[in-house]
Each structure stands twice: as structure tokens, then as C-alpha cells.
Amino acid sequence: MWSFFARDPVKDFAYELLPDSQEKSGIWTLHRGKRKTNGEPVSVFVYEVTQGTEQQTQLAKAAFKRMKTLRHPNILAYVDGLETEKSLYLVTEQVTPLAVHLKAQAEKGGSGELEVSWGLHQIVKALSFLVNDCHLLHNNLGVWSVFVDRAGEWKLGGLDHVVPEQGDPTGVSLPAPKAVYPEMEKYDPPEMPNSSGEKWAGEVWRLGCLIWEVFNGPLPRTSSLRSLGKIPKALVPHYCELVGANPRARPNPARFLQNSRAPGGFLSNSFVESNLFLEEIQIKEPAEKQQFFQDLSDNLDSFPEDFCKHKVLPQLLTAFEFGNAGAVVLTPLFKVGKFLSAEEYQQKIIPVIVKMFSSTDRAMRIRLLQQMEQFIQYLNEAAVNSQIFPHVVHGFTDTNPAIREQTVKSMLLLAPKLNETNLNQELMRHFARLQARDEQGPIRCNTTVCLGKIASYLNAGTRQRVLISAFSRATKDPFPASRSAGVLGFAATHNYYSVTEIAARILPTLCAITIDPDKSVRDQAFKAIKSFLTKLETVSEDPTKLADIEKDVASCAQAAGASSSWAGWAVTGMSSLTSKLIRNAPGTEGGAAAEGSGANTAPLISLPLLLSNNDKRVQELCSVCSLYIWRTFLLFLLFHLVGRSSSSTAVKKQSSDWSSSGWDADDSWSNEKEGQGQSSAGEEASTAATTVRTEGGLSKAELSKKKREERRKELEAKRAERKAAKGPLKLGARKLD
Q1: Residue 436 β-bridge partners
Q2: Which tops the pLDDT comparison, 570 or 514?
Q3: Does the global pTM surpass 0.70?
């Protein structure tokens, strides 16, 4: 039981000191520490009562008390404390002594004037708070009493010697710094302590000593203050006022701050102004916030890295979450993100980005798409497929062309992270619609270019179904850049085509482009043709190289063979159909001997000769025959096109999502199935004959209809004549039959 009351309170302390992290800070020893519950980093000032003198213990207890009661943004923040008989523990926010910070910055190239200007601004503001608002004197201002937090902001500490300006009413007096540390005498002002100067005269004198040491290093002696050294010219006039021999002429800290912030002053710059705005951002108007974030993006490049990470970033995130700042925060947010590690980026920025993609604000969406390159590497595949891609695809159907274009371009970055369904089905469906129906030529062109660049991420089946059809359609686009993109797409994806596809589908398409009105398109077509012909010649010379050339082509030989077989039928089938049409043309039906002799084109050759005959009956017969032949030929072409359209519709209904989306609507290489249209000669002849009979039947029907119409008109005319002859009926008269 007694052991319970004898427990060491240090063991129950909520904070843990990290080993090998101590630094001397006046009478205190500064340790790095962390909270035991969540690992939050802190700084712990420790004073050992057994190792200090009575005066030092008095100062430590006074500082412990002051830290609890003084609260100001520019004064070191008190977090927790522990007082025992053996030691004092003072827990504050995580900080580093200014001397250590300046030394580390010197190794990196020195602290910039912007950082120092804001640091001095904060210390002077804290000093003004003590002197003017609290009526306290610090009495210990110097490099040793200033600390720097993670954001690079300077905090005033060292409150060991703080006393009321009129003296302690309890009658307890603290020893002067030089009484504890004799070497501190060089920082005392030259006048007597009880001189008739202003109450702040000694405080601003020590402020001048601090400024000198920040720019020139440790102060060797009081007389060195006369040498300006590296003090900036803009600060020299105000520095001289601080260390003037006349204590009455030394300015109040508030006036020094005001003078230094005047135009051209050392504290008048974009960094100080940005910090002051951030401190008051909660009470600023929305228009002011918008303008500030727009200007902030240009200034961030010159701001210190730590300041951007630990002060600007939290304000940007808060402005987006609660301030409705909108798209204007994106540019500075991504600039600050460059300073973060991968883990920090995942924790702080990625959740915000995912939330931004669900926004309906068009300005927000287009900014995200434009700057996706800056954060895509931090996005994992699960977040892309489930939380980002479903929102991004809405951009494909947006009425704003700029959003559609940026959405297409963003697929270059998103494609490697998309899953099978989103990439090979959903994305291809949107690409097909854009290439076929979008009214903007540049968007159609970019769709083709993007497809060629992401081809390596598509699975083999999608490549076989999509690439040739898509690039072939692009070569028929009215926009020259789209036609060029189609040709370049073929060349860029050459390793995904079999030699059969090259010979039967790609080269015929490219050959048609060699007569393109645009010379740049023609030049690209010739280059691509030469490249593909070289592959074919290589295989022709050495068939054993076929496997090496087709190593990137998936096992889709059957589909490729079907396409090439159909292409061969398409070339020869038209000539055979034309010949059948000629052989079955009217005018030759009565001439069985001529047809049997095999003179298929005889009627076409002999018609001009017959037309020159003087026999009127012969000429009339030839005219009728000629008209009949041409009408039959045109009807056959119409019948053939209708048949192709209906067969294409049937194929489309059974095709994949890609084909149904419209990629192959105008592509004759992929609309038909192998063997479609390969009917026998008898079937083609019967089709042609049916065409002729149908033509004759339609002519008779039209003639009969015309005769009936004429007969009806005649009867109506006769009835009108009879009514006119009888005259008008009288009112009340009864018509007799």
C-alpha cells in the first residue's frame, strides 16, 4: 500500500523523452520528446533542482509559472508540465533553438532575407505584446531565448527573467541575467538601470543585439554593435535607432514594427504580407481569399519549404474544406505538395483530391485534369478505379469542349492504373463515341493519338478488335490532323499486327491515303507503307522470322485470317456481281444463242452501233433496251447496298461494345463476317433476275395506278358537268331521283 504513494510521478508522465536529444538552453536542458498515446512530437525543457543553484531554481520556477499564464501566437506555447522535488518538466510545442536553426541554414546556404524578416516581425510583435499589453519586461531577449518551430516561425521563450515594469507587488525580485551568467553583461544597455529613459529602452537595445547576431554571428563585445556587418541596407536606419546611445530616442517596439513595414522597409515584402493574411484569413471576405490564393501561387516558389509544408498547406486544406475556396486553391496546393514525402502526400492531399473529383464545379474539374501529372504517381489503383475514374468519365459527355479534350488527355496518365473493365470496356466505349460523333476535330484527333499511346495497356482481344478499326476510321476523318493521327497510330502500334492483317487490312487503308489532299498526310502514309512493306518482305525472304515479327501479337490468328479472307472476297466479289448483272441484263434474255456463246459484254458493245441504224423501230428498241439496262443496274446497286446495310446491322447486334459504339460503322474491313456474300453463281443470278422481275412488276403497277387516277378524274369531271347543267337547287326543294 505504501508503495503506491511512493511511486515516481515521472513514470506516469504522459510524455517520453527521446535519448541523445538534449541541448543546453540557459538553465534548462532541451529534449526532444513525444506523447506516449499518439506519438505527437514535442519539446521538453528539463531543469534539475539538485544540480542548480538557489537563484537558478528561483528563475526556473518563475519561468514555469509565466509559461502557464502567457498565451500569444508568437510566444512559445505551453503544452504540459510536471514539478517534482528533483526536477521541473516544461512541455512545449516542438521547437529548435534559433542558434541551432541558423547554423543548419548556413550549411544549406544561409537563411533567406524573407525568412529572417518574418522571424524578426514575430519577435518584435511578441515583445510589443509584453511591453504594451501586459506591461512586462522580458529582460532576457537574445538568440538564446528565441526558438523556431517546424514551419520556420520564430517564437519568443526564455521567460526566466520576466518581471512587471513597476516591480513585483509581492516584493520578490529575480536576479538579473548577468548575475547568473556574467558573460551576459555585454548585452546590457550603456545607461544605468534606473535612468530616466523609457521603460522599453533596455528591451529594444537587446532587440538590436539580436538583429546584429542574426546577421553577423555571436556578438564579441558591446562596441561591435557599431559595425553593421551583413545587416541589410533596408534595415540599417531602424537598427541604428534601436542601439542609439540616447535611451529616450529608442522607439517603442510597436513603432519600430510600423516603421519597418513602410514601403521599402525590411519587413515590407510578399512573405510578410502573406503570413499576415493567413493569420487573419478566417475574418477575410471571400473575394479577398480568392485573390490571395491566386497571388499565392506565384509567390510560393520564393517561400521557405518548411513554411509551405507546415503553415500554408494546413490553411489551403482548411480553405477547401470549410471556406468554399474552390478551384483557386489547386495550383498552390499542388506546388506545396512537391515538398511532401510520399507518405505525407497520401495522408494530407490525396483525400482532398479524391473529394475534389466528385465536385460539379467545372473550373475545379478542368484544373484537376490539367494538373493530374503532379499527383497521379501518388494515387493507388483502388482509388483510381472506384473513386476517381467514375467521376472523370463524365467529362467525355460534357458540353464544354475544353473539358472533353482534357478528359481525353488525362487517360494517358490514368490508363496504367485502370482495371480490366474500366480500360477495355468503359474507356473504349467512350473513345469510340468521341471519334465517331464529336463535332470538334482536335478532340477526334486527340482521341486517336491517345488510343495509340495506351495500346500497350489494352488486352490482346481489345487490340485485335479496336486498333485497326479505329485507325482506319481516323484516316477517313475530314480533319487533316485526325487523318495524320490515324496513319501515325498504325505506325506506332505496328508490332501488334500480324502479317496477314498488314497485307489485307492495313496496307489497303494506307494506300487510299496516298492521294489525300493534304501533303503531310500523304508523306506520313508513304512512310508507314514502306515500314509495313519492309516487314512483309522480311517474312517473304525468310519465313522463319515470322514468329519474331509477330511476338507481340496475341494468339488471334483465326480472327486475323477471317478478316483477310473477307477482304479478298470484297475485292473479287464486286467484279463477279457486276459480270452476273451484265449477263442477266434485259435485252439479252431473248438472245439465248448470244448468252450461250459467252459474249457477256456484247449488248454493251453493240448498243451504240444499233443506235446509229436508220430503222426507226430498231432505234426505239435500242433506246428502250438501253434505258432498261441502266435502270436495272441502278436498282441492283441499291439492292446490294440495302443487303450490306442489313447484314451490317445483324453483325453489329452480335458484336462487342466497341463495335456497337460506332467504331466500325464506316469501316468495310470489319463490318462483315467471313464468307458473308460468298453466294453461289446461281444465287447471284437469281438475285439479279428477281431484281429484273421486280422492276417490271413495279412498272406495271405504276402504270395501272396512273390509269386509275386518270379514270377517276374523268368521272369527277363528268359529274361536275351534269350538276352545272341542272342548275342550283332552290331552298326547300326536294331532289327527285
Answers
A1: none
A2: 514
A3: no
